Amino acid sequence: MIILPEEILPGLFRLEIPLPDNPLKALNSYVIIGQDRALVIDTGFNRPECLAAMRSGLAELAVDPARTDLFITHLHADHSGLAATLATATSRVWCSAVDARDINRIVALAPDDPRWEDMRAFASRNGFPPEEARQAVSRHPGYKLAPEKQIAFTAVTEGDRLSIGRYQLACLATPGHTAGHMCLYEPREKILFAGDHLLRDITPNISHWRADGDPLARYLESLARIAALEVGLVLPGHRRLFTDCRTRAEELIAHHRRRADEVAGLLAAGPLTAYQVAAGMKWDMTYRSWGDFPPPQKWFAVGEAIAHLRYLEGRGAIHRQERGGLIVYR
Questions:
Q1: According to the model, what pLDDT value does residue 112 have?
Q2: Which of 79, 116, 158, 211 is most buried, judged by most C-beta within 10 A?
Q3: How far apart are CA 248 and CA 241, in angstroms?
Q4: CA end-to-end span of the chain, whole Å?
Q5: What range(s) does the Metallo-beta-lactamase domain occupy (predicted)?
Q6: What is the pLDDT of residues 28-52, one digit of tens each?
Q7: pTM of the model
Q8: Which parts of the chain register pLDDT below 50?
Q9: Three-state secondary structure readout of the chain
Q10: Does domain 6-142+152-329 have CATH number 3.40.30.10?
Q11: Beta bridge partners of 193
Q12: CA 55 to CA 175: how far, in whole Å?
């Protein structure tokens, strides 16, 4: 496989890393080449096809792995999966402390670790049929395609700056898609490396699989903050690059408010589990019905339903309660 890098600006390139068997199709990995070192932003899954594409692209750019650092925008395996494989003894791997911790926690879990069962049990409490929950977890990319070993991350936080070549990159905390999602902003060139915080052609998934927290509220706050920046070019984690950053952020804010209204409307007929809410929501999918959704897609859909339910609950619009071992909302 030969991957031809696309030059975006001097010293800044995009590599399209294929994501086999995944509806996202490809990851945009960005490579910045400086005088002394290179920086790779996001990596692709920990699977041979992704590694072959990454190595091909880096070879085309004559990047020396021993003089290359990595920046991981967030924990999901399509962005972090190859971090341990690509990092050398002289590499630094930057990530937020929250997502770095969660990546290493996932890597530490054996396939038979009881914490995977805890996840399946929580899904069942939200209405997931047990067998579907088992299949969803066993086929989840985070379960199968995470880094091969734990990583000695260097934690970054809001306001930290990375200097590489002609680019001065400011770290921006943008929680929502994950708790520790981090963007990079180059103020002189007005470039935003957006990870999965902003995508142009698809909507970032905002999921929640915990008993507390409100990730959708955090995401909307992060979008409002990004909308206030002067951005001339957005470099997203997937699909095409775009220039209308503020407009897209506002579109996503409006989208999630409509979704929250849709969820509240479904509950008007009576109490429902998150699984039942997700089954009633409209999805931009090619499947004919909810029953046709594969378990991994149902997992993302139910997680998004939970995020919207928690958002509404936090504003007093709906209430959560336990009934017969199930979490229901009314």
A1: 60
A2: 79
A3: 12
A4: 52
A5: 26-238
A6: 999 999 999 999 999 999 999 999 9
A7: 0.94
A8: none
A9: CCCCCEEEECCEEEEEEECCCCCCCEEEEEEEECCCCEEEECCCCCCHHHHHHHHHHHHHCCCCHHHEEEECCCCCHHHHCCHHHHCCCCCCEEEEHHHHHHHHHHHHCCCCCHHHHHHHHHHHHCCCCHHHHHHHHHCCHHHHCCCCCCCCCEEECCCCEEEECCEEEEEEECCCCCCCCEEEEECCCCEEEEECCCCCCCCCCCCCCCCCCCHHHHHHHHHHHHHCCCCCEEEECCCCCECCHHHHHHHHHHHHHHHHHHHHHHHCCCCECHHHHHHHCCCCCCCCCHHHCCHHHHHHHHHHHHHHHHHHHHCCCCCEEEECCEEEEC
A10: no
A11: 184, 235
A12: 30
Residue 72 and residue 95 in contact, taking contact as beta carbons nearer than 8 Å: yes
How far apart, in whole angstroms, are the C-alpha atoms of residue 190 and residue 253? 22
Q: Tokens for 87? A: 């990092």
Instruction: Output the six-digit token pair for 151.
Output: 């990583």
pLDDT in tens, 205-217: 999 988 789 999 9
Q: Where are the domains of the chain?
A: 6-142+152-329
**Angle subtended by helix axes 215-227 and 245-267, to nearest 10:** 150
What are the φ/ψ torsions at residue 227 (nearest 5 degrees)?
Answer: -60, -25
